[in-house]
Design a protein that fits this description.
- 6 copies of one chain form a homohexamer.
- Chain A has 123 residues and is mainly alpha-helical.
- Chain A has a single domain, classed as AhpD-like (Up-down Bundle), CATH 1.20.1290.10.
- The first copy, chain A, has 6 helices and no strands.
- Chains A, B, C, D, E, F: Residues 29-104 form the Carboxymuconolactone decarboxylase-like domain.
Chain lengths: 123, 123, 123, 123, 123, 123
């Protein structure tokens, strides 16, 4: 994995653990919902991840965008599909979304590089 | 069509005409993009409409939600699919999305009633 | 109760029922959390209601503001306490909060009039 | 004046009086700043009003937009200048600004009609 | 004090000085209001700080959250009280608040460590 | 140029190139509009840049603020004019704009230092 992806995931997991060990019921349930909401239901998992990505982008939450980019990547989305989703987010959310689009592109590149590096390492 | 749906569409069309007859280039092109962005590309039309719906819901724009509910309805989405998309929007956007969820439900009911009425009238 | 307060509550309850009868698990749990989060815990109920009011005000959600104004009213808050909370919301959220402040004041007046009318009717 | 403009101003003034008679110091000072900030300084009054309009539009506050449209109108802005400012707001804020643009256009029309009616009445 | 807390405060103070030495009247008065609004009034200081924290959290302003966490810490709030306030913010503001919750937890840890270190140093 | 300004511009240009080489039509057109919208029209270029700055500030987009600060600087705005525009943004957007105001001040200082350094080097 690329250093940037690893660092993002490590911080996320470390702090999520800190939060959850506190046992605040409301927060724990929201975290729990956050897992359940993206499971297969009337809509399939891929569609839901894309919805999560676009909602995160228009709300301009870089960490949320990164998280959903990573799950979209794992779900096998092509870059052009992800970019098309982000283009809709940029149109709806306006040019203030562009700085987040730049960081999203950078993170996607990291995800692709991680993956090709992983492939090389495994061989 | 139900009175509420008709009124919404009539106002929307009347004012869009007023805006476009003004010939402001930037606005005209944004309106143009707003049509093109939802056309079939790497993603299909249905997925794109759902992305538009969820982005509108988390940004809490009632008119945008109504517009995308109507196109989702025309694209043949089942209510439970639309509700699942809106449930993700409510989780991501928080309980402040709930008042918009209430109005979205009301408008979807109007769309369903319009449609059944239309069917009756056509027979 | 004043007509405005009654109408607000009636619509809210009617649409909440419509939403909940749909049995979307995520939405039902969010509604459930929305009740639990304001119950006595480390913080008392009054403080929590005031937090809900201020969060609603800075996010400029009129319906959420009305809902929390009503619960604040029932919890026995004095008007000057509520106004002081709203003054902090206006400072943090800026002058774009002012139109929502106007509607909050109007709704509080309705709540006070409802109550005095109720008192008169009961006598 | 058109009924819509009059109603908007009357409600605004009535509720502002209600708010100010309460003597909350923070709110009173914010209202006071709201007057002073748009007075001539390093920037002229017209530029400041246009800044207020665009900020209100991207934050999607209809009442704030109406207020600044009215002051822009009184300051003698041409419609195409106001529309150009709103086009920048729509580009920066995205297509979710469009419903607010429709209502802004409608209000500007009311302002123009009010004015021509006033002219006729004065003659 | 921990390095992170110190750095945050140092930057904040340095830039606030830069801003205030410029003598822009509107900005100076807003800064002044920002001090006065949290002083004891109809509501006590602790409640007001908690309102500031929750408003900052739902508006997803990391620096504002840090500032109010520090004042809450100094006012003697227990962690579970602060977490309960943040749980309401996360419910109202949705899962996009979670990345800010992670950073809030990290900063609170810094505040607690600073304090225990200070105690050790003073002995 | 100062290191901070250079780094900001370099990243911006690098990632914009990455985005544009992808040939997503919607995004390319939005980028194109983003150039055209600030050209001379009914309003002059300087006014438009100031509108872009204030819209970016109330939407709390640091990168957008930096970009418009740089163009405002190049257009010859005096610091007190820019500060006055930002004071209106802070009033409209509230105290949550203040952390962005601090970073805006810091970036403006960088722009001024860059410029004086450039002058020295050219001599």
């Amino acid at each position: 994995m690329s250093a940037a992806v690893e660092e993002f995931n490590a911080y996320r997991e470390k702090m999520n653990s800190r939060i959850l060990e506190d046992n605040n019921k409301i927060i724990k349930r929201i975290f729990n919902l956050d897992t359940n909401a993206y499971m297969k239901g009337a809509l399939d998992v891929k569609t839901k991840e894309l919805l999560g990505l676009v909602a995160s982008a228009v709300l301009r939450c870089d960490d949320c965008v990164k998280y959903h980019l990573e799950t979209c990547y794992k779900e096998g989305f092509l870059k052009e599909e992800v970019v098309e989703a982000l283009s809709i987010a940029t149109l709806i959310g306006g040019t203030i979304v562009i700085p987040h689009l730049r960081r999203a592109y950078e993170f996607w590149d990291e995800l692709e590089q991680s993956s090709s590096k992983d492939t090389v390492l495994k061989e």
